[in-house]
Amino acid sequence: MYLARHYVFTLTVLRRTKNRHSRDPMLSLNLEDPPFVTVLIPARDEEKVIGRLLQRMTELTYPKDKMQVIVINDASSDDTSAIAEEYSHRYKFIEVLNRDKTIGGKGKSAAMNSGFERSRGEIIICFDADYYPQKNILENLVREFTDRKVGAVQGRVVVLNEPENIVTRLVALERIGGYRVDQEARDNLGLITQFGGTVGGFRRDVLETLGGWDESILAEDTDLTFRVYLAGYKVRYVGDAECYEEAVNNWKAYWTQRYRWALGHMDCCYRHSWKVICSKNLRAREKLDGLLLLNVYFMPLIVLLAFVVGALLLFYQSPWTSSWVISLLWFSVPVSFYNFVGNFAPFFEVGIGVYLDGRTRAQWLVPLLVFTFLFNVPICLKAFVNLLASKILRKNHNVWVKTRHNGNGNCYIGN
Amino acid sequence: MSRLKIALKQALSILFLETIALFLIVSFRIINLESALVLFVFDFLFVSLAFQLAGTFTKKLGLLALSNIVGFFCNLVFHSFHIVGVEYFGDLFNGFFAISYPLLNMVWMVSFWSLSLAILPKPKNMKVKMKS
Prior knowledge:
The complex is a heterodimer.
Chain A: H1 2-18, E1 37-43, H2 50-59, E2 67-74, H3 80-90, E3 94-99, H4 108-118, E4 123-126, E5 132-133, H5 137-143, E6 150-159, H6 166-189, E7 200-203, H7 204-210, H8 220-230, E8 234-245, H9 251-278, H10 284-294, H11 299-315, H12 321-328, H13 332-339, H14 347-356, H15 369-393
Chain B: H1 3-31, H2 33-49, H3 57-89, H4 92-119
Helix pairs in contact in B: 1-2, 1-3, 2-3, 3-4
């Protein structure tokens, strides 16, 4: 099913690229009176990257009298606050919200909620501190809200520090598959477009209706995506709204980040699956895609299980196993097609995404994505076991482990 | 384009098509059904996806024919490996081979897919530099 789904996604994007047409002309932003926008930037120990983003905020083309930037300093122990304060003194539209150690440091959702309380914008846009957006990104994102059915938007994430090492290069490939093909196809097909937690935003009234960010969940982005859809709104993907991120640059950081994503995503699957099935606001295809999206982090486990069962059959072989069981194992062929190269996106999807981006040399690294998949098997297994334990013991083990950013991506800006 | 060039291209295309068909049949007759299926799956993906990209039809057909040849010989090696393994380790090797066969095939399939897309000309609306 996943294989077929991704094949359809790839085909859709190819067809759309061939018959390329611009966004709905009705969706034109009234530049005379654009909506007031609040940009929320949660930051915890981000002294190496926060200055870069705030400088960029001053360079955005969106009218500054229609903008409010709130830096949520979430109990930082470095100079994040000082850097943000310096910008806030120089620019009126930049504000700093300091959360001390008694209330801060409890995760991104809590920080976002406190920022949301102070916000005044009709549209709330979020950026992580290590991101570096295009100058016209707000216009591109805000334009989509002209359609009243749109509750949230998502822009495209591109890896900034891709040339740094093999980990960043592979993460970049994953991002290309995810955004250039997956998200774009979902948006075109009217399926569940995912809000990625950053480089995106919400209509204020929608966010108020939903009650803001859920502080008890690690994948607050997936959680919000489904809450938006269940409330009868949709999420639009804007591929033209590009933002550059500093990707994790070592396997340890990759493990930590992906473990958080896997655990949070599986938790979302537990919370939302039944609601998606019963929802009256979702069409059948949205329900199907929603369920597949919610279960995606279980795929490495299913593949692992298939191979464990295969190995067991290997040792407990009886005369009858050699015929139909061997044939049965042939199911592992398409499963491998899907999983082994591409990590949540099959190799042909990543390949086409890379091609459409005009990245010839990056094509050579596609076979190496097998390592990221193998790395994700134990990650998802650990997440599944921990989630199971927390549900049985009724204890919430959701501890937000922050991804550290070293500012290495700075050297690629302006090149 | 001169008539000779067109005729040459047509002849090449027919040759490539025959090569593809030949290796599909040969892999079924000499190796086994599974190897022919693997080639067929790759051909299906290539024709339905890569054929929509930039580049001449002949070039794409040539790449597909080449991938069928490579795929056939890879499968022949895997098959020989299978026969030798069963000879040495007995029927147990059948199970081991059944599990590892898809992975072995992935090696040439993914590599050839990447290679083919890297060889094809870049799309016109490509994005190579960071947008300001």
